Amino acid sequence: MPAITMPQLGESVTEGTIGRWLKNPGDRVERDEPVVEIITDKVNAEIPSPSAGILERISVPEGTVVAVGQEIAFLATEAEARIPRGGSALAATATATINAEGRAEGATAEEVGESPRSSPLVRKLAKEHGLDLRLIHGTGLGGRVTREDVEAYLREHPAASAGGVTVASSAVNAAKATSVPAPTEKPNGERGETITPSPMRRTIAQRMVQSVHEIPHAWLMVEVDVTGLVKLRDAAKEQFKKRERVDLSYLPFVMQAVVEALRQFPVVNSSWQNDQIVAKREINLGVAVALDDGLVVPVIRNADQKSLVGLTHALAEIVGRARADKLAVGDLEGGTFTVNNVGAFGSIASQPIINYPQAAILNMETIVKRPVVIDDAIAIRSMMNVCMSFDHRIMDGATAGHFLQSVKKRLEGWSPGSSIW
After folding, report:
1. Contact between residue 359 and residue 242 where contact means Cβ atoms under 8 Å apart
2. Which residue, of 12, 79, 147, 405, has the greatest Cβ tally within 10 A?
3. How far apart are CA 277 and CA 315, in angstroms?
4. Which sequence positions are flagged as catalytic?
């Protein structure tokens, strides 16, 4: 009987959370058919079955954190499970073998008065509602009582639920929810709520604390006159969408300016490791993508080898997969510098936290029209702030300032007559 174990989804991944079981005990599964959704600090992934067979039992309930290599379920061949082809999980209730006390083969738990087989999650749910599992007909393999059996019983017998309250579901969908807030009493008597963070939020918290604790952050901001860029984009965006079938935003222009500046100042494309500065040969640009339950930073590899059009397509593709929850572990590894578009939320100035262990992170802010003095005259210009946090161990303000001036110069170099192809 082969075991399904928690896989290692990435070199630095040591554990994962059972987000959602896609199969129930007694279900037939084919080789490479997804059986469970795993949540790690990097991605959500559907884990395929290592072989064809019957899902004999689930060892770990949804919402549980499991170490890499730990068993989470077991498979059985159809012969081992004794379920005839074309039969159902209900047929398995008559396949129990003789136990140590001499119970006859084929006898169900209800017939001998024993508590039927069930998972810890099911037993907890039954305890919460004061239910006797022997009263519930199990539809799982070998008469196992499943969560669905308990919920169906509560719907059919609402009075059996403690306090007369029925239950819709007992499992926590850890991939999309942070858990139901529970009211608590604060010391001053005010009502509050305790919210259990999702695995993604916990990971973000850990990484942010690690970054601030280990990296001495410094911060700079420059103003960029993007009037020419705004006019260029406004004139080209419809033709670009028709020709390239993707929207033309301001972010690819910033990305291109950043990768060109990184080639000019390679120390910014580095990290601090074992009291040494490690300069990276590749320029792999991380792009922060906000999701409903957190934030991920997928990586565009060899970004300096892509044109503006290439960066636009790469950005649309990676952001689309991030929001569709289709990222692979490799999509989130190997970044050497991160760009974040907080201007999309109306921000005009911000101090980002470095994506550890990189050397710097750059935020582009919102573009606003405001009066600017040019040659002793006041003009209305489209202005954008560019903010950067950097590792003060790796570079001083002079290097960071020159880098930002390089980004500024490149962004201000765009004009309505510039070619984007």
Report:
1. no
2. 147
3. 29
4. 392, 396
Buried b (16+ CB within 10 A) or exposed e, 260-279: ebbeebeebbbbbeeeeeee
- DSSP H helical segments within 129-273, as ranges? 147-156, 199-214, 227-244, 251-264
Packed helices 251-264 and 308-323: angle between N→C axes, nearest 10 degrees? 120
**Residue ranges of domains in the chain:** 3-164, 201-412
Given the DSSP bridges, would you call strands 28-29 and 53-58 parallel, antiparallel or unpaired?
antiparallel
Asked if 21 and 33 touch (Cβ cutoff 8 Å), the reply is: no
CATH superfamily of this structure's domain 201-412: Chloramphenicol acetyltransferase-like domain (3.30.559.10)
* CA separation for the pair 161, 369 (Å, rounded): 61
CB 149 within 8 A of CB 140: yes
Cβ-based neighbours of 175, under 8 Å, separated by 6 or more: 19, 20, 37, 39, 44, 198, 293, 325
Task: State the alpha helices, DSSP H only, in 141-183.
Answer: 147-156
Three-class SS string for 3-55?
Answer: EEECCCCCCCCCEEEEEEECCCCCCEECCCCEEEEEECCCCEEEEECCCCEEE
Mean pLDDT, the chain, integer: 82
* Length of the chain as a residue count: 421
Structure confidence at residue 282 (pLDDT): 97
What does the alpha-carbon distance between residue 393 and residue 332 come to, in Å, rounded to a whole number? 25
Instruction: List, in order, residues 6 or more apart from 94 with CB less than 8 Å away.
Output: 106, 108
Comparing 3-164 with 201-412, is the CATH topology the same?
no
Q: Phi and psi of 345, rounded to 5°?
A: -100, 10
Bridge partners of 77, per DSSP, are none
- Give pLDDT tens digits for 276-327: 999 999 999 999 999 877 888 999 999 999 999 999 999 999 999 998 888 8
CB 308 within 8 A of CB 256: yes
Question: What CA–CA distance (Å, rounded) separates 41 from 357?
Answer: 16
Highest mean pLDDT among 30-44, 59-73, 360-374: 360-374
Threshold 0.85, pTM exceeds = no
Q: CA dihedral defined by 362, 367, 368, 372, rounded to 10 degrees?
A: 70
How far apart (Å, rounded) are the C-alpha atoms in residues 340 and 372? 26
Q: What is the pLDDT of residues 172-199, one digit of tens each?
A: 333 333 344 444 445 555 678 888 887 7
